[in-house]
Automatic annotation (TrEMBL):
GO molecular function: thioredoxin peroxidase activity
Pfam family, one: Redoxin
CDD domains per record: PRX5_like (cd03013)
Active site: 55
Protein name: Glutathione-dependent peroxiredoxin
Family: Belongs to the peroxiredoxin family. Prx5 subfamily.
Organism: Tibeticola sediminis
Reaction equation(s) it catalyzes: a hydroperoxide + 2 glutathione = an alcohol + glutathione disulfide + H2O
């Protein structure tokens, strides 16, 4: 499992692009995690699924609502990762009115979740392999803060907890 000080895995996730980007038409665009995190401070949170109750009512809205506070604390980008496809992540971002404040990244085949060891097996419950619920602060591709939830919990990966950690690290 990923630990403090570890580098993010060099895997590819996907993001829905509403406008043509380098090498990509409108639609799913590949995002190299290692490349996208290089030289930045990222508030990254992972969750079991788009449009699910806790994820939609609490987890994502907390980060959306605190986006400016994260910027003030020195965070360059906020990333939301889930084992969903890029179309679902894009639709969920629109539904949640993230408006560019959060990068909605699809880990459709669970490459990131597997590589970090942050998986949640919901096989038999209709969900299959998912992402665990967690948050982490990443600087220049390395984990500097990590909060992993116990299954079925939402106590340590919320926006307020990670924001306090970002503020604390900014003072060092």
């Amino acid at each position: 499992m990923i630990q403090l000080g570890d580098a993010l895995p060099d895997v590819t996730v996907f993001e829905f692009a509403e406008a043509p980007q380098e090498g990509c038409a409108v639609g799913p665009a590949p995002v190299s995690v290692a490349k996208a995190a290089a030289g930045k401070t990222i508030a990254l949170f992972g969750l079991p699924g788009a449009f699910t109750p806790t994820c939609s009512a609490q987890h994502l809205p907390g980060y959306r609502d605190q986006a400016e506070a994260f910027k003030a604390a020195g965070v360059d980008e906020i990333w939301c990762l889930s084992v969903n496809d890029p179309f679902v992540m894009h639709a969920w971002g629109k539904d949640q009115q993230v408006g560019g404040r959060i990068r909605m990244l699809a880990d459709g085949d669970a490459a990131f979740a597997r590589a970090t060891g942050l998986t949640l097996d919901l096989t038999g419950k209709g969900f299959g392999l998912r992402s665990a619920r967690y948050s982490m602060l990443v600087r220049d591709g390395r984990v500097v803060s990590l909060n992993i939830e116990a299954p079925g919990r939402f106590e340590v990966s919320d926006a307020q907890t990670l924001l306090a950690q970002a503020r604390g690290l900014g003072q060092r």
